[in-house]
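Before the break, one more example. Copy the sequence into your notebook; we will annotate it together after we see the structure.
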Amino acid sequence: MKPTYLSWSGGKDATLALDSLKNNPQYHIAGLLTTANDHYGRVSMHGLRMELVEEQAEKLGLPLEVVRLPKEVDYDIYEHETQRSMNKLKSEGIEAIAYGDIFLEDLKKYREQMLSACDLDGVYPLWKQDTRDLSNYFIHQGYRSKVIVVNGTKLEDAFAGREYDERFLNDLPAEIDPCG
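Here is what the structure looks like once it is written out:
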């Protein structure tokens, strides 16, 4: 089993990736890797409070490695701090970092370049899967989530704060992907 850390935002895609990897005998989930803005105390990706991510990691029984970023961050700082954490994990025997990415080829390519620099493998258990199927699986497995961020140019603000459930999926306009 390959010792693997999972890039953890605290959201549904990360949860689905964890679910997939826990059922895959090729990987051992050794911990979670989160990128956070220290000034705001929030996950960089979605703005989730770090206290919630820490509580999730505790309930999952997994250690949490935090890439700590300053208030103002650019790509150089982000890459330096991320690679520092990845090198630390590599020195502790970690062989791969897993991501809950589904699409975005350019993001995957960027991640692969960063991982390569640290001699780590990338794992993408959700890559190119049907997002409607993933959403239904998430709901039917009993996972719960609230939508905390919406793009106001694509979706009404009233969708923020709603439970991510069948009703939410049914209310989404056809052109909106259920996994964002």
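DSSP finds six helices and six strands in the chain. The longest helix spans residues 75-91. Try to locate both features in your own notes.
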